[in-house]
Amino acid sequence: MAIDRTDSPFQPEALIQHGGNGRVREEAQNASIGELLKRLSSDGSHLVQQEIQLAKAELQESASGTASAAAKIGIAAGLALPGIMAITAALVIGLGIIIDSYWLSALIVGVVILAVAGFMVKRALSGFKSGLAPRETVRTVREDIDWAKRESGRVKQGLSA
Questions:
Q1: d(Cα 130, Cα 124) in Å, to the nearest integer?
Q2: How far is 132 from 127, CA to CA, in rounded Å?
Q3: Assign residue 11 a region: left if phi > 0, alpha if psi is -120 to 50, beta otherwise?
Q4: For every one of its 161 residues, what pLDDT tens digit does the chain have, with 9 covering 90 and above?
Q5: Got the DSSP string for the chain?
């Protein structure tokens, strides 16, 4: 979602739209400090509203993608469970025949399966840590802060001139 900053009279795009640099500078110089602060406040609140909308859209997109992926994983796990159980039984029986102890073979197979599952859960949790943050919103907020700093510097220079 693109942020429209052309509402500000201090943007180059706004200068072009308002008939060039001279007229807007003249309006800014003729405006009182109260009017300029009011305009700055209005532009700032408009920008904050746009950032909130962007964050909501990003979080909804992220949540719907995560829900879809979770549903697919759940279906796959439900389908794979009988196959895993059959393979586990075959491993226990085969290892039991080899070592002549079914309880020990069941213990060995169980420990190996739990170790693999623990490793997979650890990797899955590390994937969730960075997956839900609204990265685009964070990036645009940083850009907005930089923009506001530059603009406030320009306004201070314009007022002191």
A1: 11
A2: 10
A3: beta
A4: 444 544 444 444 443 344 445 565 666 677 777 787 788 888 888 888 888 888 888 888 878 878 888 889 889 989 999 999 999 999 999 999 999 999 999 999 999 999 999 999 988 887 776 666 667 777 888 888 888 888 877 777 777 76
A5: -----TTSTTSHHHHHHTTSHHHHHHHHHHS-HHHHHHHHHHHHHHHHHHHHHHHHHHHHHHHHHHHHHHHHHHHHHHHHHHHHHHHHHHHHHHHHHHHT-HHHHHHHHHHHHHHHHHHHHHHHHHHHHTTSS-HHHHHHHHHHHHHHHHHHHHHHHHHH-
Q: Is 44 in contact with 38 (CB distance < 8 Å)?
A: no
Which of 15, 46, 11, 9 lies closest to 28 in space, CA to CA?
9
Each residue of 125-149: pLDDT tens digit?
877 766 666 677 778 888 888 888 8
Residue 20 one-letter amino acid: G
